[in-house]
Amino acid sequence: MKQIFSIFTLGSLLFLLHCKFNQPNYHLTLQEAEYRYETIENIKYSLEINLSPKDSFTGKVNIQFVVKKIRDLRLDYFQGEIKSMVLNGEALSDFEYKKGQIQLPSNRLMIGNNTLSVSFETPFAKTGNGLHKFLDPDDKETYIYSQFEAFHANKMFPCFDQPDLKATFQLQVTAPKNWKVISTTLPTSQTKTENPEEVLHQFPESKKISTYVFSLHAGPFQFWEDKFESIPLRLFVRKSLAKYVEPKDWFTFTKEGFAFFNSYFGIPYPFEKYDQVIVPEFNFGAMENVAAVTFSERFVSRSQMTRSQRENLSDVILHEMAHMWFGDLVTMKWWNGLWLNESFATYMASLAQAKNSEFQETWISFFEKMKQWAYEEDGYSTNHPVEAKVNDTEEAFTQFDGITYGKGASVIKQLVFFIGEESFQKGVQNYLRKYSYSNSTLLDFLKELEFVSGFSMKKWSKDWLETKGTNQIELTTVCADHHLYGKIVQAAPGPENKLRDHKTILGLYFFDKTNKQVSYEQFPVVYSGRSSEAILEVKFCPDYVLFNAEDHDFVIWKWTDVNKQNLEFVLEFDKDPMRKLILWTDYFRQVSLANITFDEFKDSAIRLYQIETDTKIKRWILSKLASDNGYTYLTSRFWFPESKRNADLDSLQNFILEELKKVKAGSDEQRYLYLSLIDSTYTEGSQKRLYDILENKLSFSGLKLDQDLRWNMIIKLSSLEKDRNKIQSIIDREKKLDPSSRGVNSSLAAEASEPNPEVKQKWIQVLLNPKTSNHSSSTLRVVSYSLFPEYQKNIQLQFLDQYFDALDKFQHTDDENYLDAFAKSLTPDFCTDETLLILKKFTNNHPKLPAPVKKTLLKQIDSEKKCIQMKYKHKELMTQ
N or C: which end of the chain has fewer CB atoms below 10 A? Predict the structure, then answer.
């Protein structure tokens, strides 16, 4: 009876799966990917692509593959036209092609070798995904680049688009004769065609890689060449932007990376060359296409780069280079293992900077950016384990977040602290050697680390990778008779969270208030469970205790009864910027937890800014005081009546102006202060000041008003100016001075920011219909983020119904990057109970929203709750 029931259950399951697979859906599910992986192997693509400046391109792909099981087979191809299809020598004319997939009938397949040939025509993308085309407004030149992660190779050509169906790629491209063509390998030949205006570029067969890291980029790029040992290096950028690129920095950071990674991984760079291509309208920071990495033009500054910008460029270059091993050489089997790519690349980039670059402050930057992103993302109700469950490729997009990047990298840092750098490195080397040119899972990686370290990776993985949530701790210390008694109480708030094993560093400060000095000692501490205790032998009782002093732990320290005077003494006299930034961040967290007000924080921040010497900390303080995005002292002023708001903002501007008078001319700090001056402009007097600077009636010694700074000022003034004549004449003038793509986008942002409901309505209609717009998704993103600044909530309120109606009409096949940007930029964030109720009601009544939209709304619900709590903390100040 049991056997009969098992057979019936299996048959029913297969029937249900068959039915599910035969209901066309664009996004690939995990079940479909597993089904296809069990069906075919040994895939080879041979591609012929014909590029031109037209709106579409034509091509032909020959796919060789081995069939292991005879069954219907899905081929992925989104919104293109199939000209012809030949399977195993016979033309297919009755194939089903719906919602981005073609069903290859089982009766045309054979066990063993099969060949599929497809001729197609595909429209160029305007979304940044697939094969994207860009027309440079400066010189009217056309540039093309590919972006395939996570499920967009099929937007260029028909393929089996999943990471564990690795394949070789052979490519030939016909393109205009003045174009460079870049792909995974170096071209073997470039020959003339019958058309004298075209050239045929032929590329040799690649090594075995996943579809999402194959690439094709083309256009009349300017480029520079260099070499690291035997590896050819090239850097490409569009011609009109070339004068702003500093190739020396790019090649220096690249060579530093190769020197470190070749040694650390124990496997020489596995591909034949290394190209870096700076491309316009890119959705992300960069993308690790095999040997042809793409970078956003955001990394090209039209003014002299600050040290922070150069450090960030180095970090991103190293991140993408680390992917050549973690992601390209060894690839996760499915998108639940995305962290195996991104967490490692994030951690390895910081490690490479620390070990072999000028940026020794890298771990401070890691704490400031990645760690805080991780804590923030893990605090939302939408959080997920680092090793997340991913049902389909639509959900895969939502995993590119602070948990996959920041938390994953942070827990790797914690793991290295547990098992030691040597064991970790050896485990990584074994893992990379064992799974080269193939796919891996979490278990594969854990086995290699456990083998070399003897550390129980199963429990660590369950705690840190497979369970979501952040632990919180409270620390109690008592000191007497040269002994410090410490008690750590651990909590696991939120659903599915758990208590974990941690290793951290306890930092002890000793004050010499007479001489205004501090001394410092630290002790490693391991803790677990609900409560842990330790006794440390000390010469003197400490005046202040710092938890997680070197930032190896991933945990939130809940402060209790903090002595503000002692805290400020440490912040003033400690010389270590990492420890100080940890304390500053924990201090600011008290504002977000509604334990203190922004006003209390501001008083400390302004006093200590004036005596701080570290530029990174000063920039951080300014971002919490004067940024016009997120929760800052400046944005909190819009909770208050107009009179207090104006008085507070004028006071903030006066502080910034005083610091601008004292700062070194031409320094990075001067630029940070000036950007803060622009951000905090609101009152009539501060607006007049910006006009005076724009018209050269006021200046700051050493500060160069480059074009991007000018646009920042103009967009800010446009968002405040009701009398349009003055600002419009300036916008028109700057448009003529700056016809570049940045200038075009900035002028549109200035227009969209105008405090005029009619202008908002015009742009809302454009944003609601992106497919019919002449603008790219990139341009529309710029517009959407400029549409409703903090002080235009009364106007935004008029468009809430249109916003929610639009969300209800978007489809799961719509571009996820656009959906994400639209939802984030226009979601109501009014910090009111009414908004919270509206968001909850809409989200509950629309359970089938596209994944990026749903995640954004759920996060905004959490943010509104948090904001309302913070606002309530200020209620007494509001009535003064």
Answer: N
